[in-house]
Amino acid sequence: MISAGIDIGSRSIEIAVLEDGVIRETRKTDTGFDPIGQARKLIHGLKYDAILATGYGRTLFEIEHDAPTITEIKAHARGAIYFFPEARTVLDIGGQDSKAISLNASGNVTRFEMNDRCAAGTGKFLEIMATALGFSIETFGEAAMKAKKDLTINSMCTVFAESEVTSLVAKGENPNEIARGLHIAVVKRAVSMLRRVSPGGPVVFTGGVANNPFMGRLLAQESNREIWTPDHPEMNGAVGAALLAQEMIRK
Amino acid sequence: MKQELFKKLQQIAEQNLLDIETHKKKGNHVVGFYCLYAPTEIAVAANAIPLPLCGTRQAPIEAAEEVLPRNLCPLIKSSYGFAATDTCPFFRFSDMIVADTTCDGKKKMFELMSAIKPVHVLQLPQNQDMAKSLSPWKDEIENLVAVLEKLTDRQITTENISLAIALLNKERRAKKRLMDVTKAKPSPLTGMELVEILFKTGFFADKEKGIDLMNEIADACEQLTEKKESPYTDKTSRILLTGVPIGLGSDKVVKIIEQCGANVVAFENCSGYKQTFQVDETKDPVLALAEQYLSIPCSVMSPNPGRMEMLTEMIKAFSIDGVVDLTWQACHTYNIESYHVAKLVQDSFGLPFLHLETDYSESDTEQLRVRIEAFLEMM
């Protein structure tokens, strides 16, 4: 049996196709301004017995394709336990929100916390800050790793932090060090969110931000916990959705 | 049958403003109240109509922010905005406002409101240690008696107060009976229907009309339950909403929960179950009022064990599957107390718990929806 999961996020859309629980194909595209049009292009030519949608665009997909939906919280929990069966805690940092999830042995969510309603502590925050410092998002983490000293960023609001970065640049601070300060600010926020849902143990780190090599390292350091990252952390939600689609057909 | 009763509710609500006008034309008074702590019995004893005031809608908040800070509870901003823009008929009808020093935001706002209309502020103690707090609170109520005697130019006798207590006890029994119909599984009413009934009957000038209607609706609901008629099934998730008060216009969380397929069956807040107490009719009436009103378990009290007791009882009595704790933005006392509520719900009952902090605007509807859906997926 072939099942598919589509994760329509604020920045990117991912799809995973599984055959009897084994990943057969994955696809990815930018969300742009027309999430449903992009999703349509992404699933073009794919064959599956069932598809389940998650992510902020899930309801649009549900209307057009008459597909069931689940929240990204449940999808990430299910995906995490597929890649790491021992997982009990997940941290997902996506494009416009971040969440800490605690789960039980069957992959069901028992507690979760999400960031505030703004972009603070998310991929969007890092993206805007990278631009403000003249880095691409791909090289932002590497730049931060080159920093020689600590520098504290106090603002977590994206708009305020951008002004803070501008004044630090004007003071002649090193961009690598400012980059490091920004990474630390995001990580500290994520760690306090993690502590609210679970006191200890390994953490599965998912979402696009987990591709940034410096984030995982800082997380381990600040939380004193083991950090497990799947090979393609941004695919985790789509894989979770595909697994849940499969379970739905079996029921 | 339910539809007809909702039509009747609407008719009385429309007739209500005329009822108040007629009452005023006869030379009688209207007293506006903002908070559950102020005993409306004293107004009734003075033959005045006690009215709750508007404060559950987004519309006047912009005007309020010309004077009040933006980062303030929406209930306080909305209340002030309605008064400042003269868009609340109940405020307009009021000869005097009786307010209380519940939280910092409210008491400072009332200072500004007193420029618009006479506001009498009761000094509410911040803890329920009767040995320390009962006597000053009883003094405040005695002073309120004097203030309303002066306003209405009437003498308020002990007998007047006893009669008022009996009437409002009867109203609170009717409210409790109405709110208890949702103990049936599945419930005959939606949470939104219950919010609408409680909100609209709250403004009724004629208490007996409200009591009769609530009893009629409760009768109808009990019959529906006997016939096993309900908008829900045995499998529908039953949610308890706790925290800040809500009303029509500030009901978005109830709406989203019910759009997601669950049923809000219980409201542990001062627009809901906190209104179901009974004042002791055998004691000295002012003392009985002071004791009972001071016992209301709002988060402004420190400590506030009564709320945890009420939650414990309600979670069992209403067969609750999950608890949502709602905090209006910048309401520090409910926001901090959420820590204890989470512990009670998750650790003692092992139930899913969700804390939401929001305002009256629609801007975060989708962010709320994903949290609420994920919370319901846990059941």
Question: Describe it for me?
Answer:
The complex is a heterodimer of chains A (251) and B (379). By secondary structure, chain A is of the alpha/beta class. Chain A is 44% helix and 21% strand. Chain A is built from 9 helices and 9 strands. Chain A has a 5-stranded mixed beta sheet with strand order 7-6-5-8-9, with helices on both faces. A 4-stranded mixed beta sheet of chain A has the order 3-2-1-4. In chain A, helix 4 (123-133) runs parallel beside helix 6 and helix 4 packs antiparallel against helix 7. The model of chain A has no long low-confidence stretch (mean pLDDT 93). Chain B contains 15 helices and 8 strands. Chain B has helices at 2-25, 41-45, 61-64, 74-85, 89-93, 104-113, 130-152, 158-180, 191-202, 207-226, 252-259, 285-294, 305-317, 332-348, 365-377; strands at residues 30-33, 49-52, 96-100, 119-122, 238-243, 263-268, 322-328, 353-358. The two termini of chain B are 33 Å apart. With 379 residues, chain B is an alpha/beta fold. The mean pLDDT of chain B is 97. In chain B, strand 5, helix 11 (252-259) and strand 6 form a beta-alpha-beta unit. The interface between A and B is medium-sized, with 14 and 12 residues.
Number of helices of chain B: 15
- Order of strands across the biggest sheet of chain A? 7-6-5-8-9
What percentage of residues of chain B falls in helices of 4 or more residues?
Answer: 40-55%
The helix content of chain A, as a percent range, equals 40-55%
Care to count the β-strands of chain B? 8
- Helix/strand-derived class of chain A? alpha/beta
Write down the Rg of chain A: 18 Å
Distance between the termini of chain A: 13 Å
Strand content of chain B: 5-15%
